[in-house]
Amino acid sequence: MTPELGQLALILAMLLALAQGVLPLIGAWRGNRALMAVARPAAAGQAVFVALAFGLLVWAFLTFDFSVQYVADNSNLALPWYYRIAAVWGAHEGSMLLWVMILNVWTVALAAFSRQLPEEFLARVLGVLGIVAVGFLAFIVFTSNPFARLLPMPPDGGDLNPVLQDPGMTFHPPVLYMGYVGFSVAFAFSIAALLGGALEQGWVRWARPWTNAAWGFLTCGIVAGSWWAYAELGWGGWWFWDPVENASFMPWLVGVALIHAQAVTEKRGSLRAWTILLSIFAFSLSLLGTFLVRSGVLTSVHAFASDPRRGLYILAFLAIVIGGSLLLYALRAPKVAGGKAFAPLSRETVIVIANLMFTVAAAMVLLGTLFPLIGDALHLGKISVGPPYFGFLFPLLMLPVVLLLPFGPFLRWGKSEAAPLKSVLLRVTIAAVACAIVAAFFVDGQAKAIAGVAAAVWCGVGTLLYVYKRWREMPRGRRYPAEMAGMLLAHFGVGVFLVGVLLSESLSVTRDVRMAPGDTQTVGAYTFRFDGVHATRGPNWHAEQGTVTVLRDGKTIDVMHPQKRTYPRGQVQTESAIDPGVTRDLYVALGEPMDPNKLEGAWALRLYAKPFVRWIWAGGLFMMLGGFVAGADKRFRARRAAAKVAAEPVLPAKESRA
Amino acid sequence: MNPTRKRRMIIVLLVLAAAVVAVGLTVFALQQNMNYLFTPSQVRAGQAEAYKTFRLGGMVKGGSIERSGDSLKVGFTVVDADGALPVEYTGILPDLFRDNQSVIATGHMAGDHFVATEVLAKHDETYMPKELKDAMEKAHHGKAVAANEAPQ
């Protein structure tokens, strides 16, 4: 009975979304306040029904309702309760439901916190979000119903893909979707601005905190995914340029460009059309990401379902959303153009350069990701584009960004003098060169590691110099407004990230070895002793668990337990053992038993010493924090009080960050 | 030419130059890193000769996996319906690698055998990578693939 209720709730939600999508837009067009007023209650009602459907699906998983196809496919009696909840978004149907639910969370938050927005503008924004929700709900109801029945009911279900049975996986998809879907808010603001023409100049100011927060979530989701790949996929890499990783990375790159372009548009009024275009791209790439991951078009771990009907639907949906918004852009963008001019040496210039680099990088990743599809369509044969393509082009594109990063904050809007930049240049260069020389003694002349130290110091010291400048020059309390603090945190995070990437890439030691019990292997300064394998079991798996003792200078540092798990349906999953540390990770994974009769007990093992690998995710977390802190700026909230007093058009920003 | 137009001209030229460099580098990187997928019979027919590295897709022939006694070296035979190719690999094989499962190996030919630098196995019991399925169908005109019936 409850699954049918869930389906009913989804259909009602779809109808409410339709009302939310159509009526307020007509109202805003006709100036009909009654129709505009539909937006809020329709959004709230839709959120209630989608949450109800989601809750019923969770309930079906918790109560082992195997008469529901989706539950039977993705869980079984032995699966612990927390993974049964995670299984809700472990496959296609449920993750689409999660997508819509998160869209509703954003919509309701927007409706609740945007009472200062002009009525017509808010009606348009909510209307656009309603149309997006209609697209996804119709997709769920017509092609991917999570509540479809399976009769007769099987006594036990299948299994959740074992690679998804990990704490990181309970966490990764919802956070990533918060980011993906969060860009829909920036998108809706842009479309609303295009529909309204030049009237609502202030839209960027209202859109910024939402974009910053969405970008923060996306960063967090990508970090979680990268961490999960490192710990769970078993082989110690943190980024593979896999199509699905690229799918989340493209909106992130465009998102970086977008939050900077929004800053320019808000402070100076320039780059308006570009900001709108980036908002459209960011959301389109989020949709494309969903499409790539879920349609099974590209072979990947994540593409669970391969149903061409779904692919066709998403393709049509993509064409309508992207095509429609670009058409609207072409028609209306000239009306919103304008803003102040800027000199070649100004903060705008460096932001424009960085923007170009990030968008070109996103285009480069898009080309590499879709190239197999293009090749297939043109009958060039079965092609795949190897990771070195990305590994060659991406650092090349990011080099100018890293080089310019310390100077951005020091430059003034509009026009800047060269003198202060020279002193910054001198200081960061001295710091970077000095640290690189010191580092050279520790890394055996590894060029990449030295470059990593230099680049990280360049970014880190550049950021800290600006922190110091503000500290010295500004009175207490006005030194670091949240928006600036966020920017500084994120820029500092780039430095931390560079340490992690370049040092771990160049200094990691990997050994794939055959070891019998009692054998030792030396990896860097560490000695790994293999103490054999014994059987163990968990709630829904049994495993062979190895014992590896790590010694340094004859002292035991850690005893590690890598596992080879076997799940009920015979799926094998490698669980690596990691000894974490600030300056290095030790990593052991069990390969396979080397002698079938198990007389000798020899196994293939992968041993890693990875210096500074944790800094990669630490840097990502700094960037995430930057996004959240910047999004929480008081300035955005203070406007609400002011707007209530006087309903005047938004003032040009008085304070300048420089 | 007045100063404004001159400045615009310079900007346009710079953007053009940057675009040319970007396109050139991209084409270069793509050419270097495009990997084609072939099945053993296609390799036997000489289709892969033009490529130094390529990907070999097919089934692991039942009972063909042979491990070396003292290292991580492993040999196995990859088959499709009309051909077979011995493969050599040194390293740890993926979890799902076993007899009669589909694999994709990246590497190059050395004499009459294929030396793999990376081996990927399919992701679960019911799923075969679409590209591999397509390639195998193309290689033998839609004949059903049954690895254990494949010729030596």
TrEMBL record, chain A:
Subcellular location: Cell inner membrane
Topology in membrane: Multi-pass membrane protein
Keyword presence, Cell inner membrane: yes
Residue ranges of every copy of the Cytochrome c-type biogenesis protein CcmF C-terminal domain listed in the record: 315-634
Pfam annotation, one family: Cytochrom_C_asm
Protein name listed in UniProt: Heme lyase CcmF/NrfE family subunit
Family the entry assigns: Belongs to the CcmF/CycK/Ccl1/NrfE/CcsA family.
Record NCBIfam families: nrfE, PRK10369.1
Signal sequence interval, chain numbering: none
Main localization category: membrane
Superkingdom of the source species: Bacteria
Example GO molecular function: lyase activity
Residue stretches spanning the membrane: 6-29, 41-62, 96-114, 121-142, 177-198, 210-229, 249-266, 273-292, 312-331, 352-374, 389-412, 424-443, 449-468, 480-503, 612-632
